[in-house]
């Protein structure tokens, strides 16, 4: 079931002032930067892992056939590498629309490298949201992604672009790279079946 978190995020917004805010991106926010920012830095947050466990009814799937996109799941000791953007609070109006299918803004501690830390915000789709799909084996997630598409394009592009962006960041993410490997195998099998 799809969900709309725009109103909840507006109410949650504790950054109504003018001071710039750090936003941590770990999914499409790493590679699809269609919003203005003041500064961008590779960053990480602790005790979270990236998982393709969130349904996408509005970007990489449809209400009838949701795709799969990433969210963060708590895991003590884990490190999640992504990209931090320093933005003005006004930009959240645009981002809340983009992330409206289940993502809420949470405060988090960001590690900006060189020992620098900052308070920031991160969009997380928790398991309480109606669009949450939950865990599945990586091969099954890859099959699901291969078959899904939505207004923002094929679900496979989301996965392949995210995996490429993580490699550029030198971020080894076994879950994402495993799903990617299964998808690449699947596409190769489809191509050879189509060509024979
Ligand atoms: C994020 O990228 O930080 C949130 C999830 C997404 O938009 O893919």
Report on this model:
By secondary structure, the chain is an alpha+beta fold. The chain has a single domain, classed as Roll (Hypothetical upf0131 protein ytfp), CATH 3.10.490. The protein is built from 6 helices and 7 strands. It has a 5-stranded mixed sheet with strand order 2-3-1-5-4. The chain has a two-stranded antiparallel ribbon with strand order 6-7. A hairpin with a 5-residue loop joins β4 and β5. The protein starts with 5 loop residues before the first helix and ends with a helix.
Summarize the structure.
With 196 residues, this protein is an alpha+beta fold. The chain has one domain: Roll (Hypothetical upf0131 protein ytfp).
Rg over CA atoms: 17 Å
Mean pLDDT, as a whole number?
95
CATH superfamily: Gamma-glutamyl cyclotransferase-like
Quaternary structure of the protein:
single chain
CATH fold descriptor: Hypothetical upf0131 protein ytfp
* Biggest pleated sheet: 5 strands, mixed
Bound molecules: succinic acid
Distance between the termini: 39 Å
- Beta-strand percentage range: 25-35%
Write down the domain tally.
1
Number of helices: 6
Q: Helix-strand pattern, N to C?
A: HEHEEHEEHEEHH
Question: Major sheet: order of its strands?
Answer: 2-3-1-5-4
* Percentage of residues assigned to helices: 25-40%
In CATH terms, what is the architecture? Roll
Tally the beta strands.
7
The CATH class designation is Alpha Beta
Which segments are poorly predicted (pLDDT under 50) over 5 or more consecutive residues? Answer: none
Summing up helix and strand content along with how strands pair, one would put the structural category as: alpha+beta
Which geometry do the CA atoms define?
globular
């Amino acid at each position: 079931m799809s969900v709309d978190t725009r109103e909840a995020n507006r109410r949650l917004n504790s950054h109504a002032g003018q001071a710039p805010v750090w936003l941590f991106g770990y999914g499409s926010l790493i590679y699809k930067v269609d919003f203005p920012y003041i500064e961008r830095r590779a960053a990480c947050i602790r005790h979270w892992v990236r998982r393709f466990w969130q349904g996408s009814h509005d970007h990489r799937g449809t209400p009838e056939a949701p795709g799969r996109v990433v969210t963060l799941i708590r895991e003590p000791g884990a490190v999640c590498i992504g990209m931090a953007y320093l933005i003005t609070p006004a930009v959240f109006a645009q981002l809340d629309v983009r992330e409206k299918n289940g993502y809420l803004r949470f405060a988090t501690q960001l590690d900006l490298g060189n020992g620098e830390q900052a308070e920031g915000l991160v969009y997380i789709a928790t398991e309480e949201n109606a669009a949450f799909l939950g865990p599945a084996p990586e091969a099954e997630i890859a099959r699901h992604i291969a078959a899904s598409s939505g207004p923002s394009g094929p679900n496979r592009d989301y996965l392949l672009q995210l995996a490429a962006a993580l490699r550029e960041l030198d971020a080894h993410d076994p879950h994402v790279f495993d799903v990617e490997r299964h998808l690449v195998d699947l596409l190769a099998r489809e191509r050879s079946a189509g060509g024979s």
